[in-house]
């Protein structure tokens, strides 16, 4: 069997490439969605409407037959397309080819007269994720919508995150007679509603640099203790946070570690919990000052306030209020592969952390950081030592 996944373009049949039209005409059968089927019957009488997995099953069932199958996909084959699913799931009996089309990305960018070399590309179609982290750390973001997340939901999420002034462009029914393209600040579009499968470009001229290293002087200080710069950097380094990681900050204090972790988890969120109201207000002030919007802050005492947290990949525990065992167990109940880092200043906290890690059969690493900073004394610089801080990293060894 030969399978050619063919990009149909944004919708107007006039934007179908000559190669795509030839492929569709010559195929023994064309598999596609209900939305595209009517136009395709004008080119080939053998059109079957199928979902993604039905298409995969059809190909597998007929893989040994001598036939050419065209899978007609909306847009292009190279951007969150059915093409990648087919490539992963069909067997070696199938000769697979892709025939590219004009995607919504290139079409929409041309209509707006902007280049797309700077765009961060993301699909929110059928996914429970947020555009906020991407907009926070990128000057331009292109997003596909659909399913539960529509363009007006994106607009509202930007407003809720304090990004009401960013420029939003929404395109719906692209290339068709009733095409609509709307541009404006997020707060100007809040009352509009948009079709399913719209596309969005968001421009944030004040985006935050996720690669910066935060200094102590960057933070608003209060009475709450703050993890100092050197320890903060060592802690974040120990967690090895990746952009898509879901991160917890338990006992977030003034938010210095919260903000540093949010820069690393720049395609996701840090879920922070803090029991002291003054400290929680400082977290909000510091996040706003630094332009860091991918923080979800909850006021309360862990683990009671963690019920609605999504499963964590990385967890920092700066304060547990005596509930360390319960916090770790609650986190593991959501994801047994979660990685934990705990900082301890007292020997009692060190001992308790080791006990908890051992009771859960964690593989652990323990470091003691002794930091000294230069302090001016007359015409001399003397090294002034800070209290030693223990950094404990632990995770359960899970067999695949």
Explain what you see.
- This protein has 400 residues and is an alpha/beta fold.
- The chain is built from twelve helices and 19 strands.
- Strands 13-12-11-14-15-19-16 form a seven-stranded mixed β-sheet, with helices on both faces. Strands 3-2-4-1-5 form a five-stranded parallel β-sheet, sandwiched between helices.
- The longest helix is centred in the C-terminal third of the chain and has 14 residues.
- The mean pLDDT is 93.
Give a brief rundown of this model.
The chain has helices at residues 18-26, 34-40, 52-61, 82-89, 104-112, 132-137, 151-160, 229-239, 256-264, 277-290, 324-334, 347-359; strands spanning 2-7, 29-32, 47-49, 68-73, 95-99, 120-123, 140-144, 167-172, 180-185, 199-203, 247-250, 270-274, 295-299, 314-317, 339-344, 362-369, 372-377, 380-385, 389-396. The chain is an alpha/beta fold. Strand 2, helix 2 and strand 3 form a beta-alpha-beta unit.
């Amino acid at each position: 069997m030969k399978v050619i996944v063919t990009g149909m373009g944004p919708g107007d049949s006039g934007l179908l490439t000559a190669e795509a039209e030839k492929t569709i005409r010559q195929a023994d059968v064309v598999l596609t969605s209900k939305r595209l089927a009517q136009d395709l019957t004008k080119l080939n009488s053998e059109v079957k409407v199928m979902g993604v997995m039905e298409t995969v099953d059809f190909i597998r069932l007929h893989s040994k037959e001598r036939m050419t199958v065209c899978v007609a996909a909306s847009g292009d084959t190279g951007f969150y397309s059915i093409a990648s699913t087919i490539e992963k799931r069909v067997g070696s009996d199938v000769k697979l080819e892709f025939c590219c089309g004009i995607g919504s990305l290139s079409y929409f960018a041309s209509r707006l007269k902007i280049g797309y070399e700077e765009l961060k590309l993301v699909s929110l179609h059928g996914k429970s994720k947020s555009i906020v982290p991407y907009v926070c750390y990128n000057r331009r973001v292109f997003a596909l919508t659909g399913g539960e997340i529509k363009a007006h939901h994106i607009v509202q999420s930007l407003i809720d995150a304090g990004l009401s002034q960013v420029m939003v462009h929404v395109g719906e029914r692209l290339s068709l007679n009733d095409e609509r393209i709307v541009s404006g600040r997020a707060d100007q579009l809040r009352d509009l509603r948009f079709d399913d499968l719209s596309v969005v470009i968001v421009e944030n001229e004040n985006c935050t640099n996720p690669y910066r290293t935060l200094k102590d002087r960057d933070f608003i200080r209060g009475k709450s203790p703050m993890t100092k710069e050197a320890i903060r950097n060592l802690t974040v380094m120990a967690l090895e946070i990746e952009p898509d990681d879901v991160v917890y900050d338990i006992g977030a204090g003034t938010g210095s570690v919260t903000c540093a972790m949010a820069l690393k988890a720049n395609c996701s969120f840090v879920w922070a919990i803090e029991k002291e109201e003054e400290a929680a207000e400082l977290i909000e002030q510091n996040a706003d000052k630094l332009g860091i919007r991918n923080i979800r802050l909850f006021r309360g005492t862990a683990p009671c306030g963690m019920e609605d947290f999504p499963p964590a990949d990385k967890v920092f525990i700066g304060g547990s209020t005596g509930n360390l065992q319960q916090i770790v167990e609650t986190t593991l109940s959501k994801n047994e592969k979660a990685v934990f880092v705990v900082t301890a200043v007292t020997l009692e906290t060190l001992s308790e952390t080791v006990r908890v890690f051992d009771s859960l059969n964690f593989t652990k690493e323990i470091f003691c950081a002794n930091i000294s900073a230069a302090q001016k004394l007359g015409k001399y610089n003397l090294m002034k030592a800070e209290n030693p801080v223990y950094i404990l990293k632990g995770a359960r060894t899970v067999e695949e």
